Amino acid sequence: MTTTLVMEAMAAANAQLRWKRRKQEEVEDSDSSSEYSDDDPVVRGRAEPETKPILSGGHVDHFEIVERVEMGQMASMFFNKVGVNMFYICIIVYLYGDMAIYAAAVPISLMEVACGNHSCSAGSVKYNDTDPCWGSVTRTDAYRVFLTVFTLLLGPFTFFSAQKTKYLQILTSLMRWIAFTMMIVLALLRIGKGAGEGRPPVASLSGVPNLFGVCVYSFMCQHSLPSLVTPISDKRRVGALVLADYVLILGFYVLLSFTAIFCFDSSLLHDMYTLNFTDNCHVLFPVFTISTNFPIIAVTLRNNWKTLFHRDGGTYPWVVDRVVFPLITLVPPIVVAFCTHNLESLVGITGSYAGTGIQYVVPACLVLCSRRHLEPVAGRGAANKHRSPFGHAFWVWFVLLWAASCLMFVTANIILTDVQK
């Protein structure tokens, strides 16, 4: 639902940009006509005020999505100053959470490889952080050593620009697809041999709060839609294409989840699923598939910080631009990763709060505000062909109500859990 809302807002943003350009052209034409006499009938006709909606009529589809308008730009177009700042704060918190999760996940994987699964029994033993790794060095110490190395190797990318990452992203996506497929196949093979250890209950309500955060992370693509949808040449069936994409993703997640719960003992499942695949003391999946994302997210977060504090016509001093912004981008998630490597909590909190804002609240508000902005300039004949099937205002308010309910439920669960402890 919110994906279709974002696409409607993208189409409205394209129409808004066309309207502004047309108004600018009219101003330029008006300025050039001032060189002539006001008695000239051609000039009088040109200088007459616009009496019809600027986007109505004609054969041009003003709502065609041909320009990539990112979420931040749409927020600047349709929100007031407070709304724009709230959007950037939300996406910055979300990206901070992303960085903290990657910063913790990579050292955890390296720790598992270095310390090894001493039982060699495919994850049948769960270790404590205080257990020894190398002599007097505990597993926590090893984790922090790898986190330090990870920071020193990938942290410097935050101070530079991440341009031309096309092939890096293609390689990362390919490795992720291979990893997905391998995990499903290996779990099915193990279940087929009768070695499955999972005896899942019919239902367990204790995991519902974290389910919200995990689902937000699993299906979060709203902030990437401008880059995904705009390059599509034929957008007549973009809705069906997006629906098919979601069905494919859901199918993979269902296969991954059900093979996991029947393959592994639920009490021994790691927060990061790939760590469950140990055999003969070797972790099958390297960490390179997730390491490549860290620099890209870091640069994106740094640029969002710059945009949040940007003032028209102003530039940042070299120290602020090249040192301060990278440091405020890199330091907080690394500090969080040093303090905790509980991926379940990191995913649950980040997804439940900031992720809910990006996936639910922002799309709904963008659609509401974009409709109000275009109402004065869009005539009845200028129908938005990318209007959401859930175009009625009821569905928009339902999304906002759903988001508020999820946040209250998750917050109440966190408070009750802390009280019980």
From TrEMBL:
Basic and acidic residues bias (residue ranges): 41-51
Residue ranges of the TM segments: 78-97, 142-162, 174-191, 241-262, 282-301, 394-416
Keyword Nucleotide-binding set for record: no
GO cellular component: membrane
Region called Disordered, residue ranges: 19-53
Keywords: Glycoprotein, Membrane, Transmembrane, Transmembrane helix
Subcellular location: Membrane
Claim: Calcium is one of the keywords in the record: no
Superkingdom as given in the UniProt entry: Eukaryota
Family annotation (InterPro entries): AA_transpt_TM (IPR013057)
Membrane topology summary: Multi-pass membrane protein
Domain spans labelled Amino acid transporter transmembrane: 72-367
Composition skew (Acidic residues), residue ranges: 26-40
Family: Belongs to the TMEM104 family.
Protein name: Amino acid transporter transmembrane domain-containing protein
Organism: Gasterosteus aculeatus aculeatus (three-spined stickleback)
